[in-house]
Amino acid sequence: MVSPSLKREIFFEAKLSDILGNPITTYTNVEFKLYNHPDAEEHLYSTGKCRLSGNKEGFLSTVIGSECGAQINNSLFINNVDLYLGITVGNDSELAPRKKIPNVGFAQDAYTLRGFPVGSDVLSVPYINQDGDMLIGSEYVGFRSTHKSSEFLITSANSLTLQSAGLGDVVLEATGSGDIKLKTGKKGRIGGLTLINSGNVGIGTDVPVETLDIFADDADIKLTSENYLESSAITLSKKSRDAALVGGDKIGQIIFEGLDLAGLTQQAAIIGAEVESNEIGDFSGRIGFFTSDDSLSPVERVRITSGGNVGIGTKSPNARLEVSGAAIITGKLQLSTSSTNNIGLNLNTASEGPTCSSLNNGDFGFDKTNNRIFWKGVNGTCSYWNRTGTFDIAEHAPASEPLEPGDVLVIDTSSDRFRVKKSSSAYESSLLGIESSDPTLISNPDQLGPQTFISKLALAGRVLTKVTNEKGPIRKGDYLTSSSTRGFAMKATKAGPVIGKALEDFDNDQGKILVMVDLVYYNPGVTIYSAGDAIIEPLIYDGNFTDVKNANLESTLYKVRLKTGELITNVGAFSESVVGKLKAGFVETENAIINNTLQVSRLFVSEKIVSPVIETKNIVIEEKAKVNELEVTSIKPSTQNLEIDLSQIDKAPQDKGPLAELIIKGLEGKTVASVDSSGNATFSGELTAREASIAGVLTARELRGSEATVSGKLVAREIESENINSLTRDLLSTQTNISSQSSSLASLTTNVNDVQKLLAEIKNQPHPDPTYYQNLEQDFSPQFEQLTVTGSTNLYSLTVSNSILTGSLLIEADSVISLSSELKLSALSSVNFFGGAVIIAKDGTITSKGTFVAEAGIKTNRIDPLTEGEEKYTEATQAGAIIASSENFEKNGIFAPAIETKTAMAGIGRLDQNTTEVVVYNSNIQEDTLIYITPTSPVNPPQLSIAEKKSCESSMDSTSSPQAGSNNNSCKSFFKVAVDKAYEFPVHFNWLIIN
What we know:
This protein is mainly β. It has 4 helices and 53 strands. The protein is flat.
């Protein structure tokens, strides 16, 4: 017998094409692999990458194991029932699915029966005897299939019996990971009895997940006992091979489960038994009832202990029935006991209690964690009654903002409803209380309705309060009020509303102390046992009564201090008051009755003193007396001189008129003589003097003399002289000649009229009376702290070292400031700045010799040349100046119409009909160039915009670079004007470049 070859080859042929179906004729790397399963990860054979090429139609062929890859070992075909070919082209993933390779028997397999030797002690060739029995002549007999994916089937037309001879056992064993399944009915039926490899037994299911898994439409279990002395029972027993059970070990569970909507098995409830104690002579257990209300594992809800206690919501019930959490009893709850014991409702027996937020609205309970009784309102807010650790009573109140325990609270006066908020200033009049942290008792807030923020406003008791040392350290017993720090209290040092009294000392900057709530108006009170203990000081009025008439006593403020320096600010109101001695800085009263003596240092009456007679021996007026009419026999000086002062006449600042005079009247009340405050004297009659010396000005209605010589200045209203009359006649003749030539000056009338108008206004204004001029000597240099002139003032030369305020105009240092909203500068022709550098004409024309800079831009309706006939800008859109889009694209790479403007700074342009953009080439465009465009269409001008701007000084970007195919690669600066849509008419516009 010739030994067969141990090598195999596979011929392969295929068509190779790309994703579009085009044949691939170039060389391509292809790798072939052999697998024993279509989804196996490890391959049995690989050719490596073979470089293959197809014909012009894409067909390629090769021999795997010869032309491509090493030879294939024959054992792959013998030891594997099925083989699959995997193909990988280039860098792509392996093609799917893998191709199955047909595997047929070869002649050499007949010698070994697919690899097993014939006639050995282990395996022998079976035969059938004359009775139809299959006999195998071997000590160890077995039936098995070498194909892993095949089923070994034993069938019978009628029945199939498996039996053992003698005492032998019938063993059905699935080796490896196989299962034993006993089924009835048609082939492939699911159900019956299944024993899987792990040892689980399934009735009605092929995949038991428990030791005994029963699956049926009616999976009832019935246990029947024939012995009437014994009952049927199901015993769940747990025995440890090595040790006895200890407390906490599970003995057995009854699990109730089902499928959810996702098809997953979920446990709904469990009844389980656990060992509670396993002492010698004492084996006790407990039962737990578990339920699940979600996808999590069931939780123990009820427990029955070995002693018979039942716990609901607790694992350690200390009574026959203990409920942890809310309990609803729809019937009657009766608490009864024998006469020898007391009965009560104990809310503190649980090891831990619920919080108010964890229960439903309307619940009542005890919070073991915080040691308090609570009830939850219908709106979901909680009211408490703490047993220990708190000292105040509070109520719920709506708040305008989130609050913290210890905040000082005031009424939010800006809200349309009652709300509280944190304090923000000292001695707030709307001071209300303190935010409590955990009050002993807090009222039900249900009447408030839904609120965003709710305050626990302390009503009484001790509350931890935020404090600051703004008014100094705080000592026990000090009253506290609001401070300038939001939500903080400070020591009250004057009368005002307070929130309570400090129960602790405080010396730090900010912190918390206990405060006894006491919302009152605090009046510290000052007791003075002697009038000398208090000092009255004016705050405004300095006590100078020199000008009593102008002193506004009602606006005068006084402060009262103790000798120790403490300021007294108390204010009191009484219906009646009896005072032995009254000392005040200012007394204001409607009526006053003095039965005896009124003694005053100074008496000022704003209107008048009404009295029939004032009798006194002497009237001493230290400063001023105002008498309408004074009848005296003689006037004598109290000292050496008799002084009449005309300088202190009261006059309002707006009063104008002559200076004050000393007037002497004669018959019929006519003035016969007067002397003003400057020393000028006027007499209605004759002035006769043997000798007269006048150092100043002599004023007279008529001055007669044979001869007069005036060495200084002669001032007169009218002077008649023959010589003067002759000059007057000559002047009139000259004026006649001038008027005859006025027709030749018609061209100058415009400016002259303006001058004449101003002169007419000046002429109509009242002239100062020269009789009231005051001539001061050269060496006269008075020093005035304050000088007030009520009438007209004429100054020849004025020097001011500090500032001048005239009306609403302030001149100070180097500034001229108008205190009103407008500063007006006016002239007959123009206003000149900096010696003609800037001139503003009367008609508003501004002429500047320097550069005109407008940072925010220029708005104008027209730009004209400085000299008529000289062009200010270049018209860039004349006929033929528009470059067509195709020509612009060929030259510059931009497909849009264009205009060449070169170096012009301004010009005009247009967009032709049915176009939306135009390019304007200009070499002045820079990065920071401002471009202004104005549409000039007369009716409904369209909206124009600068769509793009490019400067050749910057790097070229993709949007502005010349397009491919451009013949001109030189850079050209430009800007692009665009319109919102195409119009059926040309759109004209002006443009202006500002660098």
